Amino acid sequence: MLRPPHKRYHHLHLYAFSGTHPALRDLPDPDFIGCWEEEDLTVLFFHREKPELPSWVEKNFGLSFELSARVPFEEWGEGRQDLKPFRVGSLTFTPVWDPQPGALLYDPGVVFGSGRHPTTRLMLQALWELWNHKGPFREVWDLGCGSGLLTLAAAKLGARVRAVDRNPLCVRLTRHNLSLNRLDAEVKEGDIREFLPLEADLVLANLYKGLLLDLLGLPSFQRARYYLLSGFNTTMEKEIRMALEAGPFKILKRYQKEGWVCLVIRKS
Question: For residue 71, how many C-alpha atoms fall within 13 Å in the half-sphere facing its CB?
Answer without folding.
Answer: 17
